From TrEMBL:
It comes from Salana multivorans. InterPro entries: AAA+_ATPase, ABC_transporter-like_ATP-bd, ABC_transporter-like_CS, ABC_trspt_anch-rpt_ATP-bd, Metal_Ion_Import_ABC, P-loop_NTPase. SUPFAM superfamilies: P-loop containing nucleoside triphosphate hydrolases. GO terms for molecular function: ATP binding; ATP hydrolysis activity. It holds the Pfam family ABC_tran. Keywords: ATP-binding, Nucleotide-binding, Transport. Belongs to the ABC transporter superfamily. Residues 6-237 form the ABC transporter domain. This is Manganese/iron transport system ATP-binding protein. PANTHER family: IRON TRANSPORT SYSTEM ATP-BINDING PROTEIN HI_0361-RELATED, METAL TRANSPORT SYSTEM ATP-BINDING PROTEIN TM_0124-RELATED.
Length: 254
């Protein structure tokens, strides 16, 4: 079997003197859309940032396409949470998308024909090419999210890391993006996505990791129907109607 695009083994991370992740082992292969789910503060974003080499890890290993995070970074597209981007910066949609290729273009160098082609392809995939000249500060929340996805796609990444890509989006935009993520997996890319949309993740992801500092459970959605897994990972109240809402059977566990 080929090497997974992302392999994390026994990862431990400390931030501000506090253990944020421990004993995290996971992998994502090309062709998979994998969900990373867990409550607020579970360490999901920290795990994505560790994969990008942005966080110093205490112990464990991370391999991106078989390489260390710093060396593998050029094959990784990252979609941060929308509020993390400086939207008041006076640049166009196309410039933001081109900035996703800065690792290829080189700092201070001008984009070439291939860079513009990659940006156009990425914008077309999120149906935003017609707005390429618009200043990003004038976009709606859904349009901004699509630009961030295009920026990550402009790199033509083998691994795509998505941090809560559906937050605050209307249903058509969520569906557009979910269809795109499914297509990207179908093309052989590897996708790791954090989300608080548990029902959506159960329907759309090939596999899920339930994380709360460590991996509480992992598997295909059909293997995660024991309500105790969800109670342990999320602190659901036993018997909570929300368990039924996300389609977890046996919600009468008390
Ligand atoms: N720079 C930092 N310094 C100290 N602690 C941090 C730092 N960044 C995050 N943390 C802490 O690490 C823990 C995990 O945060 P993280 O953002 O990874 O969680 P998350 O699962 O992505 O949460 P959410 O669902 O709310 O986005 C939290 O307790 C958070 O307060």
């Amino acid at each position: 079997m080929s090497e997974p695009e992302l392999r994390v083994e026994d990862l431990a991370v400390e931030l501000g003197g506090r253990e944020v992740l421990r004993e995290v082992t996971l992998e994502v292969s090309g062709g998979e859309l994998v969900g990373l789910i867990g409550p607020n503060g579970a360490g999901k974003t920290t795990l994505l940032r560790s994969t990008l080499g942005l966080v110093r890890v205490r112990s464990g290993t991370i391999r991106v396409s078989g390489r260390t995070p710093n060396l593998g970074r050029r094959s990784v597209g990252y979609v941060p949470q929308r509020h993390e981007f400086a939207w008041d910066f006076p640049i166009s949609v196309e410039d933001v998308v081109l900035s996703g290729r800065v690792g290829v273009i080189g700092w201070g160098r001008r984009p070439g024909v291939e860079d513009f082609r990659a940006a156009r392809d990425a914008l077309e995939r999120v149906q935003m090419h017609h707005l390429r000249a618009r200043p990003v500060g004038q976009l709606s929340g859904g349009q901004r999210q699509r630009v961030l996805v295009a920026r990550a796609l402009a790199l033509r990444p083998r691994l795509l890391l998505l941090d809560e890509p559906f937050t605050g989006l209307d249903i058509p935009t969520q569906e557009l993006l979910m269809d795109l993520f499914t297509s990207l997996a179908g093309e052989g890319r590897a996708l790791l996505m954090t989300t608080h949309d548990l029902a959506g993740a159960l329907v759309s992801c090939d596999r899920l990791y339930l994380v709360n500092r460590s991996v509480v459970a992992a598997g295909r959605p059909e293997d995660l129907t024991d309500p105790r897994i969800w109670i342990d990972a999320f602190g659901f109240r036993p018997g909570s109607p929300l368990l039924t809402t996300i389609g977890v059977t046996g919600a009468d566990v008390r």
